[in-house]
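Suppose a classmate hands you a notebook page containing two proteins, each written out with its sequence and a corresponding row of structure tokens. How would you begin to make sense of it? This section walks through that situation. The first entry is reproduced here exactly as it would appear on such a page.
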Amino acid sequence: MVDSIRTATGAAKVAIVTHSMGSLSARYYVLNLGGDGLVSALVSLGGPNHGTSTAAACALFFGQPSCVEMMPNSTFLAALNAIDETPGSLPDATVYAGVRAWVSQPAPSQLIASARW
């Protein structure tokens, strides 16, 4: 998606605004898939950066791998948060998503350790 937006707009970099699991996917992209040089900023709305207890029900009922990855202490989250919770060299922001923030439980799970922005 980042490549197609850059191609369509001619922009060298894009800003990403995410919600929920999208926050984890975007952080993974920036940290592990070469997105650090292509993304200018990342804003996370209600991202379960340290897992969410509601993911257990999601995994049970839907069996989606992303549900398992969002569970507290998952191997995915442990690896994502192991070195530096902030996404690469970009400025970053974590924002509570208001009414929807109840899904990411406990709420402090949404905060990342060393926000620079």
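The notebook's second entry, a different protein, reads as follows.
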Amino acid sequence: MSTKKVERSITPAQCRAARAILDMTQSQLANSAALGLSTIVDFERERRYVSEHAVIAMRRALERAGVEFIRQDGGGAGVRLKRSQLR
């Protein structure tokens, strides 16, 4: 049995919110995640299925840029700046 941590996916809304908090364009996210711009656009607009690999790449890029994703709980899933990013 693998002990590798399983990363949760993010939703298109969380992706858009994270980019907004970071003032990051779709093109910047695509570059940071090493993905095509159309993958970011299609994911955020829910136009087509985007692979889990691509979603994880987006999540990691956004986390490196300074956000953290909040798990689904009583208040719902969300996104916020990491403490170290707050001023």
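A careful reader of the second entry would note: Residues 12-85 form a domain with the 434 Repressor (Amino-terminal Domain) fold (CATH 1.10.260.40).
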